[in-house]
# Entry
Amino acid sequence: MLERILGLDYGSKTVGVAVSDPLCITAQGVETIWRTQENHLRKTLARIEEIISSYGVSRIVLGYPKNMNNTIGERALKSLEFKDALERRTGLPVVMWDERLTTMEAERILIEGDVRRENRKEHIDQMAAVLILQGYLDSERMKET
# Structure
């Protein structure tokens, strides 16, 4: 069955966005949604709804920033609150996905891709969303075998 899955990297000022291909094999970056204040989510949620509609998304994977010792900190709690807001607003299931080290990995990939330091900030959250979604897609495929 063809479907698309949305991957999100939720941060205090940005949300990195990625989407799967219709076969759910690969994740591609879509955009980074910026907001001026952390708790002003109305425009962010509206933009996510537009992306869901235009890509025909049926599920959302949201990065879950646990601490390295597997505990839940302030960022993880804010991500859980964002999950609830997403589910209420979109009616879609939201899967939390452990995102530890994805931002470091995204930074490494951008450095290896010769992205200039001043340009990395605009791409890092989108790249982290790609890594979150790709990890989820790979995990789901491993369950099928």
